[in-house]
């Protein structure tokens, strides 16, 4: 055999390394996929048991307002109406996103367009700090500052969706802000120059070109913030009042899917209806975060095509 | 010269510093109305920097100091009472990268008019058609005015960018290597268009292509290392330059 052929037929050291590396990364991917599938399977099997094993009507689950899985109502059906929690979760999520968005966009514009140097030096550490604070601290501050404030200003006990909104607003602000900053920074400098060269003022450039070009990115940030607000359990639980009642207004005690889950999961017996009903709430949460993810992907795709 | 042409931009002794580095070393150059003036010279000679002093785009870069006078008509554009926004409406600019805004073609073209507060649909429609025709891109895009401008080819995008400037009705159009990112066919289209636009606009064009300068410009100015070496009628510059450096550059014997 001639030496060229021989060397071509032999697997080189580099090729072997490449193969090994590929194998390791494939293994890691497989592990993650298995974990995700397992979680879905577990939550789904438990959560669906409420409807298949315990024969709860799915429609009742989503629309009834009495939550007390251990108790049967006058017709002999267990009381598993999750509507109060669904309303609570969506309430705090949307309200906090609505409150946080203008602040986040304003901050992001300041950091990227108005005063990049100073804005960055101050706001970057601030946003990073806000992300790093544990949620129990937020909850504690909410409990000792926000709740009394609401009680004094609006009356009632102070616990409720409004308090939850305020706490979540601060918690999701850094997420929305930093993603808005990224979106604004990704707008080519050229757009700004072209706009100014056409006789636009700086403000006209920001709202007619930069914000418009960054809209998909900013929307993604908002949805990420909403996903975080939707999934936050501890801080909300500390300020929302934890009453599984349909909230009458923003300052009446309410509850969210997460708050009911965290307070109830330790007090129920595996396999019982009480336990399965909580898993159904968890399944609902999981489906919602899946939905938020799909929305983000959809926005990203639309932004890319444009 | 037989008749003295009307001057639209006059600059005298323009110095520009990036921090402490002097990028323009006292440029005095005038531009005639309804002519195409080409600015040529090797990379880094200051021709683009000079172009950007004419509509104060250099203001956007920190640490830039400019001295000397630049007059549009009789107004010194660096005078404290000059409104930069108004200036840029009179002196439009086309950039090297053909990069329209990520909006529809229609919205791109009317951008300048929207800024000016024009809302009348008929006026806007008319302006879109006129400018796109002037920019020689109407036939390519007339059926997809409301589609994204980013779906067009590079040459079409650059012509939409030119239409965007034309719609704002400037007096002077600055062009910073508008065809250097384009293929020869798109380049030819844009060159022909510029020759037609000359009747209504004054065009100042930075180009790396000597052929482009000789094909379409009336006057040519040669820059070297931040200095203006020579400015004259294009024929004169290319046939019989008075400076040795100009001749060396034009004949490719440079360096």
What is the structure about, briefly put?
Chain B: It comes from Lactobacillus selangorensis. The complex is a heterodimer of chains A (306) and B (255). Chain A has 306 residues and is an all-alpha fold.
Q: Would you kindly provide a written description of the structure presented here, covering whatever features stand out?
A:
Chain A is an all-alpha fold and 306 residues long. Chain A has one domain: MetI-like (MetI-like fold). Chain A has helices at 3-9, 13-52, 58-63, 83-114, 116-132, 135-154, 161-185, 189-197, 202-231, 234-240, 257-264, 273-305; strands at 67-72, 78-80. Chain A has a two-stranded antiparallel ribbon with strand order 1-2. The longest helix of chain A is centred in the first third of the chain and has 40 residues, at 13-52. Chain A is flat. The termini of chain A are far apart. The mean pLDDT of chain A is 90. By secondary structure, chain B is of the alpha/beta class. Chain B has one domain: Rossmann fold, CATH 3.40.50.300. In chain B, 35% of the residues lie in helices and 26% in strands. Chain B contains eleven helices and ten strands. Chain B has helices at residues 47-53, 84-90, 105-109, 111-115, 121-134, 138-141, 154-167, 184-197, 210-216, 234-239, 244-250; strands at residues 7-18, 21-32, 36-40, 64-72, 75-76, 91-94, 172-176, 202-206, 219-224, 227-233. In chain B, the strands form two sheets. In chain B, strands 6-7-8-3-9-10 form a six-stranded mixed beta sheet, sandwiched between helices. In chain B, helix 5 (121-134) packs across helix 7 (154-167). Chain B is globular and about 55 Å long. Classes of the chains: A mainly alpha (306), B alpha/beta (255). The interface between A and B is medium-sized, with 18 and 26 residues.
């Amino acid at each position: 055999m001639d030496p060229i052929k021989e060397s071509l037929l032999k697997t080189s050291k580099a090729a072997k390394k490449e193969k090994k590396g590929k194998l390791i990364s494939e293994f890691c991917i497989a592990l993650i996929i298995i974990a995700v599938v397992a979680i879905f399977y577990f939550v789904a099997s438990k959560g669906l048991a409420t409807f298949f094993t315990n024969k709860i009507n799915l429609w009742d689950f989503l629309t009834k307002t009495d939550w007390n899985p251990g108790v049967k109502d006058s017709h002999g059906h267990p009381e598993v109406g999750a509507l109060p929690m669904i309303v609570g979760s969506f309430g705090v999520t949307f309200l906090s996103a609505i409150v946080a968005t203008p602040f986040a966009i304003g901050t992001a514009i300041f950091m990227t367009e108005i005063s990049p140097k100073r804005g960055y030096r101050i706001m970057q550490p601030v946003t990073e700090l806000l992300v790093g604070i544990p949620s129990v601290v937020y909850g504690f501050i909410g409990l000792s500052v926000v709740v009394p404030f609401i009680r004094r200003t609006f009356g009632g006990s102070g616990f409720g969706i409004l308090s939850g909104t305020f706490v979540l607003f601060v918690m999701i602000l850094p997420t929305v802000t930093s993603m808005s900053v990224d979106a604004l920074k990704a707008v080519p400098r050229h757009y700004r120059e072209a706009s100014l060269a056409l006789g636009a003022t700086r403000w006209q450039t920001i709202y007619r070109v930069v914000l418009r070009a960054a809209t998909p990115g900013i929307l993604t940030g908002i949805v990420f913030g909403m996903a975080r607000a939707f999934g936050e359990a501890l801080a909300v639980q500390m300020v929302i009042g934890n009453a599984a009642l349909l909230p009458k207004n923003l300052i009446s005690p309410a509850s969210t899917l997460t708050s009911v889950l965290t307070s109830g999961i330790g007090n129920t017996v595996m396999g019982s209806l009480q336990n399965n009903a909580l898993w159904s709430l968890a399944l609902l949460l999981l489906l919602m975060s899946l939905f938020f993810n799909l929305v983000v992907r959809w926005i990203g795709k639309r932004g890319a095509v444009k | 010269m037989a008749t003295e042409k009307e001057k639209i931009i006059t600059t005298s002794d323009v110095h520009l510093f990036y921090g402490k580095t002097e990028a323009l070393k006292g440029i005095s150059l005038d531009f005639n109305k309804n002519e195409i003036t080409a600015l040529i010279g090797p990379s880094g000679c200051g021709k683009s920097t000079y172009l950007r002093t004419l509509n104060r785009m250099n203001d956007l870069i920190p640490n830039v100091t400019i001295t000397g006078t630049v007059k549009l008509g009789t107004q010194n554009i660096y005078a404290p009472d000059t409104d930069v926004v108004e200036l840029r409406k009179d002196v439009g600019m086309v950039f090297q990268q053909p990069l329209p805004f990520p909006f529809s073609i229609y919205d791109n073209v009317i951008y300048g008019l929207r800024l000016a507060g024009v809302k009348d649909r008929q006026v806007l429609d008319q302006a879109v058609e006129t400018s796109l025709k002037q920019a020689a891109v109407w036939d390519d895009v007339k059926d997809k005015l409301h589609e994204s401008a980013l779906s067009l080819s590079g040459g079409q995008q650059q012509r939409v960018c030119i239409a965007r400037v034309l719609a704002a009705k400037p007096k002077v159009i600055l062009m910073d290597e508008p065809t250097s990112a384009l293929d020869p066919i798109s380049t030819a289209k844009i060159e022909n268009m510029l020759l037609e636009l000359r009747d209504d606009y004054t065009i100042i064009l930075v180009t790396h292509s000597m052929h482009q300068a000789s094909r379409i410009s009336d006057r040519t100015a040669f820059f070297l290392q931040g200095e203006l070496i020579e400015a004259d009628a294009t024929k004169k510059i290319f046939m019989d330059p008075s400076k040795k450096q100009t001749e060396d550059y034009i004949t490719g014997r440079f360096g």
